[in-house]
Design a protein that fits this description.
By secondary structure, the chain is an alpha/beta fold. It is built from 13 helices and 12 strands. Helices cover 44% and strands 15% of the residues. The strands form 2 sheets. The chain has a 6-stranded parallel β-sheet, sandwiched between helices. It has a 6-stranded mixed β-sheet with strand order 7-6-8-9-10-12, with helices on both faces. Strand 1, helix 5 and strand 2 form a beta-alpha-beta unit. It holds the Pfam family Peripla_BP_1. This is Alanine racemase.
């Protein structure tokens, strides 16, 4: 029985549900410490290990999951993908990466192909908010999970940070350092997942500290270095006083350093800047960026484990909000 032990067998021996066994195996929580020990004891005693080949023969599964990515040019996506890939390998799965385009325009085409190839699950990574994309994933009958994004209209489990709270804390951090004239390089306001919530977090932090919101201190980007350059040049062209910049992502924060350098401005002497994501670029700039750190690798592993839970049990996992933190480096100056 040892080599053929299934989740159902473990559940019966431990007197728990199959879903509970899967949650313990995938470290998803939702059970007591006593239950965890009981399940692990059965696994240890009976020598259970996932056998991909045997499972494929019984279930006709491919042991392949697909990851839909809008782009792969920054370490933001690469770090999440590394987390997904490592978790997949540990569980006997292969990963198929699908580049759906920055706007997600190729999603429908890929969804048709993935259905034909019988992938076991789909992870949508930082996909732009789009009704058609959400509908395709929700109605595909293939277990799906979102990472660093969410759907407001469909029940698709997701894992992400609280964008509103994170940008609130970034702005509040600068305020505590004595800054009151704070510019904001925002994502697009049409982006209800990250763009608008981060802008709202910035505004609320100003309001809570009795600092008037000034529209002339805000410019909009598409979360890229190139649009960050245009946006920061726009702020400078308005000749408004500011001592600090909140950037919607590290690439945009890096753009402020580049534009500032060409204008004879240095960070943090002439202005301070805080980024968002804690990608590799935040460590590579001069000076290194203070930034909001998303645990990108952990988000990737969590997304895969949530997906595996649904694949094995047929039950949708609960969505998860992952904690963030502020990583202090050398791009912010204290004014008082």
């Amino acid at each position: 029985m040892h080599n053929d032990l299934t989740l159902k067998d473990i559940a019966k021996i431990a007197n728990v549900s199959v879903a509970t066994v899967s949650r313990v195996l995938n470290n998803l929580g939702g059970y007591s410490e006593e239950t965890r020990k009981k399940v692990l004891k059965v696994i240890d005693e009976y020598g259970y290990r996932r056998n991909a080949a045997a499972r494929n023969l019984k279930t006709k599964k491919s042991n392949t999951v697909a990851v839909l990515l809008p782009q792969v040019e920054t370490t933001y996506y690469i770090t999440i993908l590394n987390g997904i890939g490592d978790a997949a390998q540990q569980n006997g799965y292969s990963v198929l990466v699908c580049h759906v385009g920055a706007s997600g325009s190729r999603t429908k085409e890929y969804m048709n192909v993935l259905g034909e190839q019988r992938v076991d699950g789909i992870i949508g990574c930082s996909l732009p908010p789009n009704e058609e994309i959400d509908s395709l994933m929700a109605n595909s009958y293939i277990p799906s999970v979102l990472v660093s994004t969410l759907s407001y209209n469909y029940t698709i489990p997701y894992v992400k940070v609280d964008d509103y709270k994170a940008e609130y804390e970034a702005t509040n951090y600068l305020i505590k350092k004595g800054h009151r004239n704070i510019a904001f390089l925002s994502g697009p306001i049409s982006d209800v997942v990250a763009g608008m919530p981060r802008l709202q977090g910035y505004k609320q932090a100003l309001e809570d500290n009795h600092i008037p919101f000034r529209e002339e201190l805000v410019a909009y980007t598409s979360f890229s270095f190139e649009t960050g350059i245009r946006a920061f040049k726009e702020i400078l062209s308005r000749n408004v006083d500011f001592t600090a910049v909140v950037a919607c992502c590290d690439d945009v924060a890096a753009a402020t350093l580049s534009v500032g350098y060409k204008q004879g401005l240095t960070v943090p002497h002439d202005f301070s800047v805080i980024g968002f994501d804690n990608t590799r670029i935040s460590e590579m700039t001069v000076p290194p960026l203070t930034t909001i750190a998303q645990p990108l690798y952990e988000m990737g592993t969590t997304a895969f484990n949530m997906l595996l839970y649904e694949i094995e049990t047929g039950v949708k996992p609960k969505s998860q909000i992952i904690p963030f933190e502020i990583v202090e480096r050398q791009s912010v100056k204290k004014l008082r």
